[in-house]
User: What shape does this take?
Amino acid sequence: MDRRKAQSRGESATEVLRDFSALLALSRLPVPILAVDDRGVIDFANEAFAAMVGYDRQDLLLMTAQSLVDCAASLERGIVAMLRGRANSVIRVRHADGWTMPALLSESVLVRDNEKFAVVALTDLTEIAWHTSPNDELLPG
Assistant: This one.
């Protein structure tokens, strides 16, 4: 909805946001966002995430989180539990070219214990790693 139209009708920002689609909001964010179910099926990835990992968004929807997240290869629990357990820490994400990059993993925006999917934001730490710790394990590998 165009903000000018909302303002001309006298709606507040909160009223406009109530009707705003979560998928639309997530897709427009400049922050890499990934949504996966407990089996690792990628249900959603925004353009920022696709650009970060070098894949087309449509190709990502055919992949699994296990093929992108290094620490997810051998899981005893589901991927959602692994992502929650590693929230606010650095993980390694596989780029389309084959190398891995350090990324800070957020907490899932879905925090109920019974959720079978996670929606997380990632921050690419590659540039920071190159400038602050050239001999560190954070560097792309």
Q: What stands out?
A: The chain has a mean pLDDT of 86. Helices lie at 3-8, 13-18, 22-28, 47-53, 57-60, 79-85, 126-132.
